[in-house]
Amino acid sequence: MSKIIFDSGISLDGFFAGDNRGPQNPMGGVSGQIHSWMFNQKAFWEHLGLAGGNEDGADGKYIRETIERTGAYIMGKRMFEEGEAVWPNDLYKADVYVLTHEKREPWVQEGTTTFYFINDGIESALEKARKSAKGKDIRIQRGANTIQQYLNAGLIDEFFIHISPVLLGSGIRLFEGIDKDKYDLQIAEVIHSELTTHLRYILTKK
Questions:
Q1: Which residues contact residue 98 at a Cβ distance below 8 angstroms, ignoring those fewer than 6 apart?
Q2: Residue range 174-200, pLDDT digits in tens
Q3: Given this model, what pLDDT does residue 193 score?
Q4: 3-state class of 131 per DSSP?
Q5: Which domains does the chain have, with CATH numbers?
Q6: Strands 158-164, 4-11: parallel, antiparallel or unpaired by DSSP?
Q7: pLDDT in tens, 8-64
Q8: Which of 34, 41, 93, 196 matches a 20 to 30 Å C-alpha distance to 9?
Q9: β partners of residue 192
Q10: pLDDT single digits (tens) 119-146
Q11: Quick one: the chain helix, strand, coil %, rounded to 5?
Q12: CA–CA gap between residue 25 and residue 198 (Å, rounded)
């Protein structure tokens, strides 16, 4: 049975992205601060089909396990717009459902990635993603607003947070406007590394 998960890096003061986010300024320019742990891992670059990374430790094991368990992705239009021009071909190696008001034919890439553009809401995207995932997990791939919608709808089973030791001071908060009474949360796993702290939570809807 597929689980609905998300996996996000945040700053120590709780920000998911910086200010003035857009296609010319992905994540508000803070990706290198929040995701430095990931960029340091060989597993991340292997997934892109590129050479890179200085380490292959517990962080890399986590990256590989998360990729392996994911059978389909859902993302918001903003994230798609930031990545469309720069992502390598077949980055996701699975079906990706983009929440948008734009009507657009599927973007079929070489390999196994196809982007589908969903105009009728988060539950429609989830229903389609379940069929694509074939029993693997469905990952809500960002942005923050998309994750917030799925959280507030009571649809998330598990999530991973990677807290980087940086203070941004302003930006987009991941848990802004979340219904605090929707779930009971349990810490299931903590993984320490030099550049981040990984936390895995299991959610039970009240």
A1: 74, 75, 76, 77, 80, 115, 116, 117, 118
A2: 999 999 999 999 999 999 888 999 999
A3: 87
A4: helix
A5: 4-205 (3.40.430.10)
A6: parallel
A7: 999 999 999 988 888 888 888 888 899 999 999 999 999 888 888 888 888 999 999
A8: 93
A9: 197
A10: 999 999 999 999 999 999 999 998 999 9
A11: 30, 30, 40
A12: 26
Please, what sign has the CA dihedral across residues 118, 89, 109, 73?
A: negative
Between β-strands 95-99 and 70-76, what pairing exists: parallel, antiparallel or unpaired?
A: parallel
- For the sheet containing 114-118, what is the strand order? 107-108, 114-118, 95-99, 70-76, 137-140, 4-11, 158-164, 197-205, 183-192
**Do 149 and 6 meet the contact criterion of CB atoms below 8 Å apart?**
no
Amino acid (one-letter) located at 177? G
Residues constituting the chain: 206
Cα–Cα distance between 79 and 149 in angstroms, integer?
15
The runs of H, that is alpha helices, within 35-152 are: 36-39, 42-48, 58-69, 77-83, 122-133, 144-152
Which residues does 25 contact at the CB level (< 8 Å), separation at least 6? Answer: none
> What's the pLDDT band for 86 if we cut at 50, 70, 90?
confident
pLDDT for res 20: 85
Is 100 in contact with 119 (CB distance < 8 Å)?
Answer: yes
Residue with tokens 């908060």: 173
